[in-house]
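Shipment paperwork, digital attachment
Item: protein structure file
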Amino acid sequence: MRRSASLHLPDRGCAAILAGDPPQFHKQLKHMTDSQHDTPPDRLSNDPASPYHRPELLARGVGIRFNGQERTNVEEYCISEGWVRVAAGRALDRRGQPMTMKVKGKVEPYFLTPAGDTDEAGE
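Attachment content:
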């Protein structure tokens, strides 16, 4: 089986990768990591049982603008598919979790705090 070339090479350490690559790669890698921290992921969930739950990002605070309006009751969102999952009233399912419904539209997530502020607050 042939391995395809990719940016992530688990058998080599990051220092080994960065030491042998040309300078333009360093610039590209820095840009990728900076934008990764400033832009919320494509999909994120509040539910700890979900595979899209990322507590380190939720700790920064994520705001959602849905169809041009600020929404505060969003349980989960997906930018690429264009939907948010919101609580449907006060009803609960059989496990005690709020019943949710999926609403389609334009999703614009953003972080409430910059990437560097959470590290300082934790100290």
